[in-house]
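Q: Could you fold this chain for me?
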Amino acid sequence: MTSTIVMINLFGAVALLLFGLAQVKEGASRAFGAKLRTGLATGTRSGLRSFISGFVATVALQSSTATALMVSSFVERQLIEPRMAQIVLLGANVGTAVTAWIVATGIDWLSPLVILIGIVLYRSGSTNRQGGGLALIGIGLMLLSLHLLSSATEPMRQSPALAAFIGLLDNAWPVALALAAMVAFVSSSSLAAVVLILSVSSTGILSNGLVIVLVLGANLGGAIPPVIASLRGAPSAKRVTLGNLIVRAIGCAIALPLAGFGGELLEMLPLGPAKLPVDAHLGFNLILAILAWPFSRPLARLMRRLVPDEAQPDNAPKYLDQRELSTPVVALASATRETLGVGDLIERMLIRVSDAFERSDLSKLAEIGGLEQRVDVLQREVKVYLSKLGRQGLSQDNANRSIVIIDYAINLEHIGDIIEKGLVPQVAKKVTQGLKFSDDGYDELAKLFHLTIDNLRMAQTIFVTRDFNLAKQMMEVKVEVRHMEKQSSGRHLERLRDGRVESLQTSSLHLDILRDLKRINAHIVSVAHPILDESGLLIESRLRSP
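A: Sure. Below is the predicted structure, expressed as structure tokens.
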């Protein structure tokens, strides 16, 4: 009976830990999701920034799996280079280890206070505060679960059966590694596995070498769920998660025979034995990051050979299944996914034009024509698909959603036209004629390019979530863009009056790029109109009543 109670307490504490992790992930996604995604997509231009981006995202989300899946999706959309993606995941692995180290610092007594603050924030009403509050509640539950785990494992000190089992594992390290990997895989969290190892280790029944082996298994098992989750993705996405698994597997294979030596070394260092699992976890991931970082480029090439590209797909839609038309909700979800893909294509076009503008590199523009053709085909297919859905009979809500999807697809297609017929010729003219903007003019245009890309990412989020607060924020961005365009035009005219040579040479180009970016932002902002219109905050005319 006593052993049954111990197991119930143990599994209950682990379940609370996993629930707390889930709340932290959901809360951080609500509060910082768009910023984290933007940071990951834009913060990967160098190895150090990539490492820091992965570290920060994982500490915020409490899930290296979530970071791995986000990064693999960005690689699939060609927003992150494969080499940088591998470095991002090295940072994510260290982020998970640092989180485990912080959790084990003995601050579990703070859990009631953290939960209380989280509940107060969650009830505040603001979306960001609610997300932050939910994340704090999750952190509090994680700290509480650590206390419960410690209490649950206390009776194990006197258990002869557990002592015999540990003795068997101590003589079969590969089995111990596989067992810890299975725990991490089943829980989809290397952090949860390491915290469990920490609790068992606190009983004093594990040797230092066995602790290190179990930690290695937790690291290996934690890299498997992202691989499974990306199996249906594009080859580029599979390469990222599989490459991370291979790096961890090689690290474990090298470290396993040295576990005994590592245990003796840790005994010599001024580290507390109670925190040996988290110290070993952090040390392993730091050493792995240092050793694997220089091999990120060869690893990316190896993964390209191991997971070759599939036959290039044509412009046919991926998600518009005619059989789903009989189920409007499913069909609308598929149309939404397809339209999001159109938005991703537009984002790629904008990024390439922005890079060509900043680096004076015409090769960045070579892909624009093909991408614009895909945008045209896909938005047309979405309209045809939803027109067929309309003949099946729809509820008013579904009919309204269908119109919103079509309007957004049309606006994306208009943006594609502006990029291909407006921005591309303008940037090509700048490059081919060697034109140089004034420093002020260049900075103004580069800033507006980056703001436009960020606005498109926000619009993609609004299109899916229909978040009212984000929609209001988007309308405020429209005013900001209008002010930026007006101020930039005014400053440009001032530079012309001052007779600055660069401004004279690039005058029409500067004003044309400003105009087109303003037009693109107007189409982007339109995604917020239906949401605000439903709330009665949108008026039909901007004219003031007399």
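A (continued): Residues 2-42 form the longest helix (41 residues).
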